[in-house]
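TL;DR need structure tokens for one chain.
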Amino acid sequence: MNLREDSAARTRAALVDSGLQLAERLGLAGVSVNVLVTELGVSKGTFFHHFGNRANYLLALHREFHDRLQGEIETSIEGLAPGRDRLLAASTAYLDACLRDRGVKALLLEARAEPLITDEVSGRNAHNAALIEPDFELLGWTHPTQAARLWVGLVAEAALLELHAGHAQPSVREALWQFLDR
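>> reply
TL;DR here they are.
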């Protein structure tokens, strides 16, 4: 990577990081191009050079949030064999991170109306379901692929319930875990 490419990558990363921070403070409506470029002290042209439009920017925020989240989940399950404990550790890491970064999670929820985000969510959910399919196979589920897809949806819904409550909901988590004790 040459100096110019390195500078461009740093600028793009700064725009995304700043957007994640603004999302925490201001929500989706507050993350306008004007606010963002003012916050970073860059021109609108810089923003549009890197993202083209707001929808592509929201997609970049979505990817960054979920890439970081994926890293946390992988760390939480490191060394765990497929099965119930691994599912619980991964799901807890997901729920805890969504609560910690509530503003970002809320922003991304609002942004799901964007077709680019909708496609990204579908793809990521399918990917995550494929990662946990071995857990359901090991647990003896008759249809592990479908069980994994449903589990991803259940955990996402639990995150939304906690997001609206503003804190962890032990009864929601306990009900979620009970699905594994069939």
